[in-house]
Every structure is written in structure tokens, then in C-alpha cells.
Amino acid sequence: MERVARRRNHENENGYSKEKDKDPEFVHRESVLTVLMNESLHIKAIYHIFVAILIMLFLDTVIYDIVERGKLNVGIASVVYGFGDIKRAFKIWLFELTLALIFYPGLRIYAATRKLVKKSAVSCQLLSVVGVICLILLQICLIGVPCWELGRKHLAVGSSVAVTCEMFRYAMKICAVAVDCIPRCHNDQRPLPPFQHYLYFLFAPTLIYRDSYPRTKKIRWGMVLFHFSEVAAVVFYNCFLWERFILPYWSDYGKKPQVEAGTVVRGMFACVLPGLLSFLCGFYCLLHAWLNAFAEIMKFGDRLFYEDWWTKSRYSNYYRAWNRVVSSWLRDYIFRPITPLAGRPLAYVTVFFVSSVAHEVILALGFGFFYPVLLIQFGVMGVMLLPLTATAGKRFPSIFNMFMWLSFFIGTGMLWSLYPMEYFARKNCPPSENDNFFIPKSWSCPKIVLKPNWTFENPFDLNIE
């Protein structure tokens, strides 16, 4: 953790560190939680607490279903439903992988053609235009075809989220290789990477292309099995949270024409804690367990996929520390190219816009409807909180760290309420002519009303009759 402390001490007024202003260096290092759990019994105890909660939820599900229904349910039904039609999802993923593999021979063809016409300036310019058009068309097909296919026929939430994330992952990797390798086609100083290295990069847990990465000497298969078992456990964990905390409040939403406002408010507050647990589990599943498992398989030595985001007091630092894999890509391929042309404010807005739109596409295709709650939270509120916490968060770190956690509670509670409300409103409400992908159904069905004869009484009135 000394590296993390040194990095924090070197932050300047804009929230950037000197190390982060340079190209990212890949070195042998473990993930932050791996270091903490190996060195601190306190962190390991917190990990054991989450495991104990998972066991209690498991027992709650098993015992309740045996007593109430006389059958055993361990959440497998929710997992099967969430990852339904896996064959169709696999076909879409194969299409995405095929387009990612096609890029490499296209790059080779472009380099060979460039050598043949290098003496003609006009031919070189024409070839560059053709190359850019082909790259854009490839990216359009890579993103457009899966989006069209998933929009044409809805796929289960888990399967849809998986193939959509893979779609964006391949698109970002192609962009990284293109930025690094296309300039090599214009001169002979550096050769193009071999196909084996390109294939390695496609599956390596990084979005920044380099000709070499630090590699470990061997694969610890026990560690791979352990991390994949954690991924499976988190999937079941979220299914338990869904079945025990979300379905009881929202599964009947829309079956009646009216619902009392108090019921909605109570349900939204009841989703705050399970929403935060899901948020933490999602972080641990994807950015720690899943990436560390693949890093071990690929012998990828640099495993700093995130930093200690839970200690931050400024949103600018949180967004960079939360997911270093994606934030590094956004910094190198969007923020830095735009900053000299349009300035840092517009570059920040562009980064947040691109990231929020990508997140919203994943959710929209996963749920089967467009409901831009996350887009507003991330793309609007997130941008507004950057300047608000830039100075105050530095002066009062403890207060604003608590403020950040309060915002996590509120934000995840809203996500775990509004999206299920819309999802079940579309399932339970009667169909109408206005139903479509973009107009929220939950705004018109059911109607949210106050209790009959509801009045507001002064809470400070102590007169007792």
C-alpha cells in the first residue's frame, strides 16, 4: 500500500498525479484488495462478513422455500432466467470476436499497400482515407449489429449485458491497437506486432496496447479456480438480493391501476441497502475476481485494475480510481487528444458523455427499454459534482468521503427501484398504443396517489387532546 500512499501524496490541485500525467507503465503489482487481505486481518474479517451474509441469505432462501413451498430453491432459477438463450448470446459474441480478429489482417494489408504506394503522396493520402473509412465501418458493424440484434429481439438481462460489454471491450481494444500501430505503417521504424501478441491483447485484462507486458512465470490454477468461484458466488448473491429484496416490493407493480405514494417511498428506501450491496458485489466480481482470474490465466503481471476508491473525497479521484482499466483508455484516447483542441472542461464533458452513453446502452439493451436514470446520474450529476468536490473535498476529506458514500446509497437505491418499477410496469400493465422502447411505461401505469384524506400535520405541535 506504500505505492498508493505515495501516489495520493503527489496529487496536484487538479486531482492529477505526476505519475498519471505520463503514459501508464505496466509493472508487476497485485490488486489493492489482494494486498490488503494479505496484510490486514481487519480487511480479511470484512471479507468474511460478506461471506457470512451470503451464507445467511442462502439459508434463508432454502429454509423459507422448504417451509412455504415444500421444495428447494437455491437461486438457480434466477440464474438460468437471467442468462437465458445462451446459444444466441454465444453467436453474437462470436460475431464480435470475428470482427475483432478481422482487424489484424486488415492492418497488415494496409501496411503492405502503404509500402507499395509510399512514393506517391496522392496515393498515400487516398489510402489513408480508405483506411479510416474501413476502420469506422468496422467499428459501426461491431457496435451497430449487436445493438440492432438485441433491440430486434430482447435477450435475457445477464446474457445481454455480457455480450454488450464484450462489444464495447473489443471496440476499445481495436481503437487502442489502431492508434498505436497505424503510425507504424507510415514508416519502418517499428514493426507491426505478430498475430500472437494481438490475440493475447484481445483477452488480456487491459485496454491500453503495448508491445510487451510484465508476465508471471506460471499459472496458479488454484487461484484461478478460487476467483471464478467468487464470481459464481457473487452471481448467486445478487440473485438472492433480487429475490428477497426487490421482487417482494416491485414484482406486482402495475397489476393495480393505482398505488399509494407511501408504498413506493417505502419500497425505494428498502432497496437502498441491497442496492449498495449489489454495487459492492458488482465491483468485486468484475474488477477484482474476474480480472484477476483472467490475469492469472494470461500470466498478466500488472493487476492494479482499481485503486482505493472507497477512501476518496473528490469525485474526480473516485472516477479515476474506481476502474483504472476503462479510465486509462478514456484518458489516453479521448481526454488527451481533445484537451489541446478544446480545453480541459470540454474534454471532461466528452469523457463523461461517452462513458454515460455506453453504460446506458448496456442497461437499455439488457432490460429491453430506454430509461436514462444512470445516464442522468452519471452524465449530469457526476459532471456537476466534479467542481463541487474539487476544493472542498481536499479541505474536508472526511466529511466529503462520507458525502460520497451517502451519494452511493442514494444512487444505488434509486437504480434498484426505478429500473425494476419500469421493468415490471411493462410486464404487468395492460398494453397501450403509446408503448415503445423510449417512453417509460411506469410514468403512466400505475398511477401514484396519496392516501385518501391525507393531510400534513405539524410535527412540532405538542398539544395532546
UniProtKB/TrEMBL annotation:
The keyword Transmembrane applies. It is a multi-pass membrane protein. GO terms for molecular function: O-acyltransferase activity. Residues 1-22 are annotated as: Disordered. Belongs to the membrane-bound acyltransferase family. Sterol o-acyltransferase subfamily. The keyword Iron does not apply. Keywords: Acyltransferase, Endoplasmic reticulum, Membrane, Transferase, Transmembrane, Transmembrane helix. PANTHER family: O-ACYLTRANSFERASE, STEROL O-ACYLTRANSFERASE. This is O-acyltransferase. It is found in: Endoplasmic reticulum membrane. One of its GO terms (biological process) is cholesterol metabolic process. The lineage of its organism: Eukaryota, Metazoa, Ecdysozoa, Arthropoda, Hexapoda. Its main location: endoplasmic reticulum. One of its GO terms (cellular component) is endoplasmic reticulum membrane. It comes from Pieris macdunnoughi. The active site is at 359. The chain crosses the membrane at residues 45-64, 92-110, 122-145, 225-247, 267-291, 369-388, 400-419.
